[in-house]
Amino acid sequence: MHLYEYPPLIPGILIKRYKRFLADVELETGEQVTAHCANPGKMLGLSDPGIAVMVSRSDNPKRKLAYTLEIVRPQDNPRIWVGVNTNLPNRVIRVALKYRKFPELGDYTKIRPEVTYGQKLNSRVDFCLNGADGRVIYLEVKNVTWAINRMALFPDAVTTRGQKHLQELAALAENNQARAVALYFINRTDCDSFAPGDAADAKYGELLRWAMNKGVEVLACRFHVCPTGIDYLGLVPIQLD
């Protein structure tokens, strides 16, 4: 049983990705459809025309687009699948937290999603855990799909929102108000280390190193993705040099 089970997925070939959130796909039946691409990043190496993809289909009549781009075969490693739907990692992490998949977090008694936090209380952290030792754990999740030479990299584009999250987490950790954790959800199996994507967003890389020095904890978590579901494989080392 997977941590997350995909609905029945439909194979296809990517024609093009455009306007960030749209992807034209030719299904195995020959039909061409436009799928929602729930990914604000550049999807480096994952949006080349002609690569194999799989989409899900919704029967919700209120949806503008019935299809959603779910997984793709990367150009540099067509033997694996990469999850590109950024709506899924939080769902997977919520189940993983329920089943205590991350012993690094210690014991906790309550899991709350989407909690307002930060110096100006205008940010929302993905999860807030009530630690058994009385300390609160703020957990921010980031979806990672970019990889070079078996190293997972985040981000793959400039992310001012992500920069802000690191600043908020660092403030919590520095003041010892709570534990602050950044969890990088590596949505592919072919990576054995993680590093900040300095080439895409040098500022984010600087902030991540600074935040870690302030006490922010980092978990680089690798997941197995296949057409039936997603499973947790464990942590990979973090490279900051």
Write the layout of secondary structure elements.
Blueprint: E1 4-5, E2 10-18, E3 22-27, E4 32-36, E5 52-57, E6 67-72, E7 82-83, H1 89-98, E8 108-117, E9 123-131, E10 136-144, E11 146-148, E12 151-154, H2 160-174, E13 179-186, E14 193-196, H3 202-214, E15 217-226, E16 229-235
Parallel strand pairs: 4-6, 10-13, 12-14, 13-15
Antiparallel strand pairs: 1-16, 2-3, 2-5, 3-4, 5-6, 6-7, 8-9, 9-10, 11-12, 15-16
Helix pairs in contact: 2-3
CATH architecture of the largest domain: 3-Layer(aba) Sandwich
What best-fitting shape do the alpha-carbon axes yield?
A: globular
Indicate the percent of residues in helices: 10-25%
Terminal-residue CA separation: 38 Å
Task: Describe the overall structure.
This protein is α+β, with helices and mostly antiparallel strands. It folds into 2 domains: 4-83, OB fold (Dihydrolipoamide Acetyltransferase, E2P) (Beta Barrel); 89-235, Trna Endonuclease, Chain: A, domain 1 (3-Layer(aba) Sandwich), CATH 3.40.1350. The chain is 16% helix and 41% strand. The chain has helices at 89-98, 160-174, 202-214, and strands at residues 4-5, 10-18, 22-27, 32-36, 52-57, 67-72, 82-83, 108-117, 123-131, 136-144, 146-148, 151-154, 179-186, 193-196, 217-226, 229-235. The protein has a 7-stranded mixed beta sheet with strand order 1-16-15-13-10-9-8. Strands 2-3-4-6-5 form a 5-stranded mixed beta barrel. A 3-stranded mixed beta sheet has the order 11-12-14. Helix 2 runs parallel beside helix 3 (202-214). The protein is globular, with a radius of gyration of 18 Å. 37% of the residues are buried.
